[in-house]
Amino acid sequence: MSTLRAILKTNKGEIRIDLFPDKTPNTVANFVNLAERNFYNGLKFHRVIADFMIQGGCPLGTGTGGPGYKFRDEFDSSLKHNKPGILSMANAGPGTNGSQFFITHVPTPWLDGKHSVFGAVVDEKDQAVVNSIAQGDVMESITIEGDTSGVLAVAKPFLDEWNQILDSKK
Q1: pTM listed for this prediction
Q2: Distance CA 151, CA 148 (A)
Q3: N or C: which end of the chain has fewer CB within 10 A?
Q4: What amino acid positions are annotated as catalytic residues?
Q5: Can you give the three-state secondary structure of the chain, one letter per residue?
């Protein structure tokens, strides 16, 4: 699959994130699909914990909302919460991934095997924006750079179901 990069535009600046479609294809496809549907536009970072992480992707702004569906975890032994800037799915236990995600401020190894890692910030400049985010800051938009057709094709059976659910909520 091709290299994919997400550009997360916030009111504090842009965060560039390299995605891992070869190792977590369904998780990346979910994120790409929601981004391409403008699901994240205008949502707030509803949970920010100093020296831990920033969390967003809840349409309710409370941490209790999602896209209307849940999907299974994807773990790859090479993807760890071993440094700042790891992009991972927030969840409420196994198999409860939806639209919420977080980006770490520090290594968080206790999250390995519990939260699906599917990307990492590109460099220190991007991490500085992550570190500047405060609770209530806004995701203005997420754009995806690269050819998404491969990862979306792999996840097509899931995407068809997810998009039907998303379309029914309009």
Answers
A1: 0.97
A2: 6
A3: C
A4: 47, 52, 55, 91, 102, 111, 115
A5: CCCCEEEEEECCEEEEEEECCCCCHHHHHHHHHHHHCCCCCCCEEEEEECCCEEEECCCCCCCCCCCCCCECCCCCCCCCCCCCCEEEECCCCCCCECCCEEEECCCCHHHCCCCCEEEEECCHHHHHHHHHCCCCCEEEEEEEECCCHHHHHHCHHHHHHHHHHHHHCC
Domain spans, the chain: 5-146
Q: How many residues does the chain have?
A: 170
Q: What is the pLDDT of residues 97-148, one digit of tens each?
A: 999 999 999 999 999 999 999 999 999 999 999 999 999 999 999 999 999 9
